[in-house]
Amino acid sequence: MIVRIFQVVTRPGKEDAFGRFFHDTAIPLMKRTKGLVHVIPGAPLADTPREFCFVMVWEDIDALKAFVGDDISSPHIDPMEAELVESRSIKHYHFVESEILL
């Protein structure tokens, strides 16, 4: 399995608009995406009000490529998101089976 961490920094003043897009469009889209095993959406904390993220676990690299294309370092951008975002970062990792301590 592949872990994909996708982080977004909104343009100044676009936090609320991106928040609506995040909750109303992006989260529902990701939850119904084929090949995605698990998705954890992250909304901003008070000291980082412009930062949002998704931590995703994909079945395998082929499932991820089916969603984003062959260049997995390229973000999958919804046209509604483009004008709201200042920057994006993407990281990938192999999933490691372990017990989660809570």
From TrEMBL:
Domain of life here? Bacteria
Which InterPro entries does this chain map to? Dimeric_a/b-barrel
Q: List UniProt keywords, sorted A-Z.
A: Monooxygenase, Oxidoreductase
Q: Does the keyword Oxidoreductase apply?
A: yes
In alphabetical order, the GO MF annotations are: monooxygenase activity
> What's the protein called, per UniProt?
Antibiotic biosynthesis monooxygenase
Origin species, per record, is Aliiroseovarius sediminilitoris
